[in-house]
31-O-demethyl-FK506 methyltransferase FkbM (Sulfitobacter pontiacus), 236 residues
Amino acid sequence: MSDQASNRARRAARAKTPLTEEERKARRRAKRNLRQAEAMGFLKGVTAMLKPGDLAMDCGANVGVVTRLLADTGAEVISYEPDPYAFEQLTTAVKDRANVRLVNAAVGASSGTVRLMRAANFDDNMKGASVKSTIVDGGRTIDADNYVDVALLNFLEIIRAEIDKRGEIAFVKMDIEGAELDLLEAMDAADLIKGIRCLVVETHERKFADLRPRFRALRETFAAKYPARQVNLDWI
């Protein structure tokens, strides 16, 4: 058997061998790390276009990694983070940034008070698990009994006021663990997205199986209406 044929045979044998759980986890980690690297590369391109006088909004700021990058451009930054633990870390991370305004609240298509549910492993790994905190029921790996009540702000009213005042919002990043679906649908219906120069979103259909048909419909609608350079639903 030739070396080429032997290599093909080995690859075929590996393909038929079931992966162990540890191997599957390693693959998922590798894919996630690649997505994150691509997202940060995209973000650096966006930040290169931001300047003092622009407004950038970070929805789901967590501990402040993206907020700091946005702040370094000199643009005005408003960051929203509902999780009390993450908000404390965020406050520390940007305490030296005078151009950043922090808001300890969730954003959505309405206002009020909502339950912010934590990941099942939150108590064991607060920093790592705080990125999963969600106000949407039915999330995978979420412990619905471990929650805190948080403020919910009507983001439609907020961005409408900013667009009326400034003419446009330069940049919005949205990573709000499933709540983006209701909010994006409402923003589209209210014709507010045209006032945002660049909108990047991490969507979470993989965590909310019941919402996948709506996510698919949203993607189809947005692909038909908005150019990819303006709206990116695959940020991570």
User: Anything to note?
Assistant: The first strand starts at residue 55 and ends at 59. Strands lie at 55-59, 76-80, 100-103, 106-108, 112-119, 142-154, 169-174, 196-201, 231-232. The two ends are 44 Å apart (CA to CA). Residues 32-205+213-232 form a domain with the Rossmann fold fold (CATH 3.40.50).
